[in-house]
Design goal:
22% of the residues lie in helices and 41% in strands. By secondary structure, it is an alpha+beta fold. The protein has a single domain, classed as Thiol Ester Dehydrase, Chain A (Roll). 30% of the residues are buried. Keywords: Hydrolase.
């Protein structure tokens, strides 16, 4: 079975697509997504909204968890912890998600966001419940 292309993977997550996230690498062990700074994603002073940072991390982490599931299974985030390290005033964010633990009932993923200069912006650890196929 051929792997879906990166655009199809993001399109399967309408909110990530609405944010303008782009998948540039997607395997069951590592997902890399990018997002370009835009004024409509900002708070006062042109700072990228913290919710955007957390949403990008959640999307990359969820995709990473999902890609390693048995056919027909899905995931749901059960916990997420984000540490915000640096403000983003422009450029492109890169989210790199890696699996820390893959079990039968849950998947733990750590996602690091970096700015255009490669500096850390945030770090998110999330747990995704594995939901078996319906029916």
């Amino acid at each position: 079975m051929p792997a879906p292309d990166h655009a199809q993977l993001v399109a399967a997550m309408p909110f990530a697509e609405l944010l303008g996230a782009t998948a540039v690498e997607a395997t069951p062990d590592r997902v890399v997504m990018t997002l370009t700074h835009r004024p409509e994603l900002c708070t006062a002073g042109g700072l990228l909204h913290g919710g955007v940072l957390m949403s990008l991390a959640d999307s990359a982490g969820a995709l990473c968890a999902f890609l390693g599931l048995p056919e027909g299974a899905t995931t749901a985030t059960t916990s997420s912890h984000t540490v915000l390290l640096r403000a983003v005033r422009g450029g492109t964010l890169t989210a790199t998600a890696r699996v820390v633990h893959r079990g039968r009932r849950d998947v733990v993923v750590e996602t690091e966001l970096t700015d255009s200069d490669g500096r850390p912006v945030s770090r998110t650890t999330q747990t995704q419940a594995v939901l078996p196929p319906r029916g």
